[in-house]
Structures are given as C-alpha cells and as structure tokens.
Structure prediction request, 443 residues.
Amino acid sequence: MIGLFETQRAMRQMRKAAMQRGVVGIVDLGTSKVTCLILRFDGAPAMEADGVGAMAGQAQFRVIGAATTRARGMRHGEIEVMQEAERAVRTVVQTAQKMAQVRIDHAIVSFSGASPRSYGLTGEIDLGGREVSEGDVAAVLAACDTPDIGHGRTVLHAQPVNFALDYRSGLSDPRGQVGNALTTDMHLVSVDQAVVQNIMHCMRRSDLELAGLASSAYAAGVSAMVEDEQKIGAACIDLGAGTTGLSIFLRGHMIYADTVRIGGVHVTQDISKGLGIPVAVAERIKTLHGGLMATGRDDRDMIQLTAETGDWEHDRREISRSELIGIMRPRVEEILEAVRDRLDAAGFDDLPSQKIVLTGGGSQVPGLASLAARILGQQVRLGRPLRVQGLPQAATGPAFSSAVGLALFAAHPQDECWDFDLAEHGYPARSLRRAVKWFRENW
Prediction:
C-alpha cells in the first residue's frame, strides 16, 4: 500500500511536469478501440472551493489532437497480448501527434478491467479546539483504517469524499475552521495489480511516461453526468465492448465502482453464432439493424445476410429484424440484471435520488433506455460526453465518454490520499458492504 502511494506520488509529479510544459496525452484503453487525445493547457490552474489539497484546481485546456484505432491484444478491458496492445497504442499516439504537430512524453491512462472493488473508510482525529491545518487533513486521512484488499491487488483510487468537524458533516474543505474532532470519509478502489503493471509496462514500451491512472467507469461518470446528477446521487452505466462499468456519484464524488465482465462484444458473438456468420458481418448488422424492442413491423423488415462459404443458399439468406432482436435482447437483459444486482449490493436505493445515466458505445442500441427502465426500475436517460474545446465532431458520441472524462479528470483532478504526507497506515479488515454505510448514516 505505502509503496503504491509512492508510485502514485511519482505519477502526480509527472503530471505536474506535463502541465508545466503545457501538453499532456490522454489514452483510453478499451476492448474494441484505443483513443488518444492531446490536450494543451492555457495558463496555471485556478484554485476552487471544492478541493482540499494542492492538486485541486481547474485548468483551462483545449484538444489539439485526437485519434482512435481498433484495439488489439485486449480482452475484458485488460491487456492479453502485449505486442499487439503496444502497436495499437503507438499507432493512435502517433496519429494524434501528427494532428497536433507536437510530441507528447506523458500520458494519463484509463482502463475498464481489473475487477475493481469499493471500500468505504472512516478516520477521526482530536484537534483540541484549534484550527484545522493541512497537516491535520493528512493526519485524518492517515487515520483511516485501510482494509485488507487481498494478495495481488493494489489501490487505484483513494479519495476523501466528505469531512465532518464536530459532527457537522458535508464539509468539502475543513482547513481554517476551529473544532475539537475532525472526521473524514474516504472511498478506496482496489484493482488487480498485474493488470496495472501490464499497463505501465505497455506505456513504457510505447515511449510514454505514465502520469496517472483512472477507472473508465469513473471517467465516464465525470463526462456523461451533469453537475446536479453528481451532487444529488446518480449511477453511470458505461456499456463498453468487453466490460460494463458502473459508478455511483453523490455530492460530486464517486462513492462506488464496479465492473460487469460482459459487453457489446458478447452481443456480437451471440449474433455470429446464432446466424452462422462471421463476427465482422455480425458487428455490421448489429450496428445498422440492431434493436431491443420489437414491433409489428419488424417481422416484415428483412435483413440481407452475406457470407463467403461458397454455398449460394447459405451466403444469400434473409432474416427478419425481429429474429435479430430475439438474439440480442437476452444478452442485454443479462447485462442489465447483473448491473441491478450490483446496485442493490451497493445500497443504491438509499440515495436521495436514483437516476441512472447510460453511456458508452453499447448505449446507442435502439430501445436500450426503455429496457433498462423496465429492468432497473429507475429514471434512465442516455448520456453523451460533455463538450470540450477543440474536440472533433466524430468524438462527441457516447463511445468517447471515458476519453472525454479522462481529459476532465486531468484538468480538474480530485485529491487522492497520496497527495498528502501521510503517517503509517493500519490494516484492520472491513467488509465490502460498508462501502456505502457512511453516507446512509451521515448524509
């Protein structure tokens, strides 16, 4: 844990160096595509009131380079073949650099795999009636009881999400205030360590210094949700190709993250197996004719199937759109039911609001919002990434929510535990169910 904090601190320093240079790269490692955005920062970060440390601040930026390519060597959001993944990263970075006419040395990376787990932690220190200082904030974060995350796992995010001074909860920055007891609630996300190490190694092989790591579920939520939804409580479902990311936000902070290892690729594979056609043809049919809610007209809407097997009758078949919907719907229902189980385990019903935002490439399937509302039983809307200056029109769709959210994360990072000089940590065990206990009791 402490060794990881040192690694994260080193990445933060690299991010500061890139910010001073004025150019930083954004790489979103997905299962089906790899996206690279090159950001140019104009001026120094301006401090705002919603942070507690040196990293809290809003920097103005614009996108000067953007590129995307088909992912290679990826499975379930994790690197499966290092050489193929490196080639995809090099390709997309070089294309973005040509567009921006500048070379990048530092990159911030998001990924969707590694089986994230969430923990809610609480720490408290005695102030003795004096003013809260920067050292007191570090001390109360160090006082949080770090859970036993298990062998072979590491910490990806450790964010303070709430401060309370003498039981006055909901403070975003307690510094300068006087009190007797300072309490904090921290959200910690652990992931598989081997996945993180492979990503770091891939970036080094691609001649890039890693300046930060983030969960795709977190980045998609930052991008697809409006400010009010992040404050009153909402969940973001990022329907990707190999995984479906889930993040819950409350009062502007992520308080829960998880991943379902099923995505749009599995829907494509179902179509390929069910119709006996190549995967590429199945993907094209899903994109052009796919849907989830059948109507009476779909029985008469015929789709041409083409193949190259040499059998004329097999290569020149027709199916109705209702047959295609009958293949796609069960897999999407399975994904949404798995998301519902995770929302129930996280205590989502206890939030003041139960809004759900669907984003990601898989959210573009017609009829998804209606089906999600029926299964999840909540207010559901389709989310697109926020508009940022210089973003190409082709990169404004839901499939780029994680990349745009990562750019916002780079410009306005939330403070992490390793941004402060911490003392030694304790390691008593905590149950996963306590990941959201603090906001039910205190918020």
